[in-house]
Write a structure and sequence with these properties.
With 112 residues, the protein is of the alpha+beta class. It is rod-shaped. Strands 1-2-3 form a three-stranded antiparallel β-sheet. The longest helix has 28 residues. Strand 1 and strand 2 form a beta hairpin.
């Protein structure tokens, strides 16, 4: 007498499907990386979906060639562009339409 009612089974299946969809979305978000170069191309930061700086590349000789204010401007410009790109990627993942969850065990015309 341990049979699961079809409505309960449908709810359990829907919950499992939702957990899988959330895990897939989370994985997509975790894989977002944006690398937009500075105006001169000498600086390339890497920013994740949460706007965190995860890496920074400076072309050889960049620090010696630029003054401190110029270097700061290059780095900040590239980080701003990368952050905006990462935000666009995040928004794209979040706006991806999710199909309605279809329960595996459909119940029609049964009273409970």
């Amino acid at each position: 007498m341990s049979a699961i009612h079809p409505d309960v089974q449908a709810a359990l299946d829907a919950a499992r499907d939702l957990r899988h969809r959330i895990a897939e979305m989370r994985e997509k978000i975790d894989n977002i990386r944006a690398r937009r170069p500075s105006p001169s191309g000498a600086v390339i930061p890497e920013v994740d979906a949460m706007g965190r700086l995860t890496d920074l590349y400076l072309a050889p000789g960049t620090a010696a060639r630029l003054t401190c204010p110029e270097l700061v401007a290059e780095i900040m410009s590239a980080i701003r562009e990368s952050t905006a790109d990462a935000a666009r990627q995040y928004q794209s993942v979040m706006e991806t339409p999710v199909d309605e969850i279809q329960p595996t065990a459909a119940v029609s015309g049964q009273g409970g």
